[in-house]
Amino acid sequence: MEKLSKGITGIAGEYFVAAELSLRGYMASITLRNNDSIDIHASKLDDNDKIFAIQVKTAQVNNRKWILNKKVENKFSKSMFYIFVGLKGLNQRPDYYIVPSIDLAKMVKKTHHDWLITPGKNGEKHIDSDVRNFKDFNGDYLERWDLLK
Questions:
Q1: Torsion of CA 72, 130, 114, 101, to 10 degrees
Q2: Among 148, 131, 144, which residue's Cα sits nearest to residue 65?
Q3: Residues 1 and 87 sit within 8 Å (Cβ to Cβ)
Q4: Which domain holds residue 130?
């Protein structure tokens, strides 16, 4: 697969997620490009009229690590989810990691705190920044579409 621009990668991820949600019986609406916190609104009227806000983060080359911003530590609700998409090659289904925003906020805060207190190269202290990471090397959230219920 050829290397895609960041913008095209993000758009591809949103459409892949919308398609997966549709296959699972959700009505999925992709939001306008100027919305920086919600990429998709999804609802399933036969499931207690639940409506979800979804933020999609997409990476290429079967990645299991995504770069985030400090905002994720404080932006969460029961009805907000992050779906991390790991694109693969053409004709290959991407990997999807479905993470409740509450879980992500706790996880990111803890891993960043742990990183800050762990000595870096040559025992030097890490310098704090707004950069955060999500990693799911164990696959705990891989294909966890059931978390949307």
A1: 0
A2: 131
A3: yes
A4: 6-148
User: Using one digit for the tens of pLDDT, what is the confidence trace for 131-142?
Assistant: 999 998 889 999
Instruction: Looking at the chain, list the stretches that DSSP marks H as alpha helix, in order from N- to C-terminal side.
Output: 6-23, 101-117
Question: CA of 55: how far to CAs of 40, 87, 101, in Å?
Answer: 7, 16, 9
In a domain, 22, yes or no: yes
pLDDT tens digits along 37-51: 799 999 987 766 788
- Residue 6: which of 64, 42, 60 has the closest Cα? 60
Per the structure, the count of domains in the chain is: 1
- From CA 120, how far away is CA 116, in angstroms rounded? 9
Convert 78-104 to b/e letters by CB count within 10 Å (16 or more is b): eebbbbbbbbeeeeeebbbbbbbbeeb
